[in-house]
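Handoff note, outgoing to incoming analyst
You'll be picking up this chain. Sequence as last confirmed:
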Amino acid sequence: MRILVTNDDGINAPGLKVLEEIANRIAGPEGEVWVVAPAFEQSGVGHCISYTHPMLLSKLGHRRYAAEGSPADCVLAGFYDVLQGARPDLVLSGVNRGNNAAENVLYSGTIGGAMEAALQGLPAIALSQFMGPETEDLPSPFDAAAGHGEAVVRALLDRAPWDQDDYRLFYNVNFPPIARDAVKGTKVVRQGYRKDTFFGVEPQMSPSGRRFLWIKGGPQHMPTAPGTDAAANLDGYISITPMRADLTADDALEDVRKALE
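Most recent structure output, in case you need it:
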């Protein structure tokens, strides 16, 4: 099996090392694991691609590359340049430091990498580790992902649907903010929504007197509705959410058609 691995926390991120270990176990001794990850952190870039400027791609080691671009750029670079169009059997993105549940999905570079892989017709899974007070006290905050990541990926490969639709399925996996031994199980759920939790800005003056704005996120431990991702994670479960890049609001389509046609 040939696996392409990327992330949005950067080539030196500890979560990437966790995912490489998972990928190597899944690929097996006869398989190949190729890593193409951003040279610098790309959190929050979503599905951005570097359409207006070139990117530097550097070989760091055997099957290991850093690209000065987004996770989606890394998938494109990995597929078309590093692998020379040889199709990966699987693309894994992560393991992200922090959850990519609820509204975070829309901003996530981790999701963006998996989404680009799906748009290229490749099977893809995004993996993220929810952080919290309990993970701070663990030897590794990625303990749940390290302990259960391989089994979750294998279950998706072996039993989940992998269609060939134009906007093909990819999967978003979030591990709960607890130790591996405390994980209660796995739930397949919808993307949730944290009410009254929004990104905003916080102004700050520099020593030179210039005014800058920091992007500021909202509370991450607000539960979403039952049967959705963040609610499952905060209840101790691994969440799996099937996704597509198609953003059509199917529930509103007929009402809009009746109103306007």
